[in-house]
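Milestone M4 deliverable, item 7.
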Amino acid sequence: MSTRSTQQPTSKRIRKSPEERKREILDAAVRLISERGYNGISVQDVADAVGVTKQGVLRYIGSKDNLLAMVYLENYNATGNVEDFRASGEPGSEEGNLRLPAYLRFLVRHNSRRRMLVQLFSILQVESFNPDHPLHDEFATRQESVWRYYSGFDWRIPATFDSFDDVRPTVRKALEIMDGVQLRWLREPAIDLNEEWAELEPMIFPSPLWDGCR
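Output delivered:
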């Protein structure tokens, strides 16, 4: 009988690139924040979800506040923008024929496919009322920032308006309504986000004013 002890082969730890590990961390943070809110999680919670140490997470994000900024800016804000719409080739996205109602329909469809990120955005928006919240200033100035961003494009608007500045109240109301509809969509019983927006759009962009500019 052999006296040599038999050893089980040890599994090698899979090394991931910094980009892969960072993506894992951000994905875990999105899920946890959307479930518990920013104040309801810790860096350790994110580390446990990814299977690394707290220091391992901090190596990629620096701090919990940095993590929140990365989650918001590199996830929710990174897609669904006007540039994505222009690249889509959809009706109303063409150069010289860029239509705001068509873009907002595109944005609603895009958001309907990323429920967790919409939930994340909604939770952060409420939490940021606290002046000490890391994204307080970001959300406090969001409406102005979005307006400046939209103003950088040449939209096709009704001839009644002298300039895109005249459309600002409509843009404000459209985004406020969109935020509210998304909150309702996140609740039960479920509604169809796209169908709900389709019913509201004629009220926001009424006929005959917006005919030919949808």
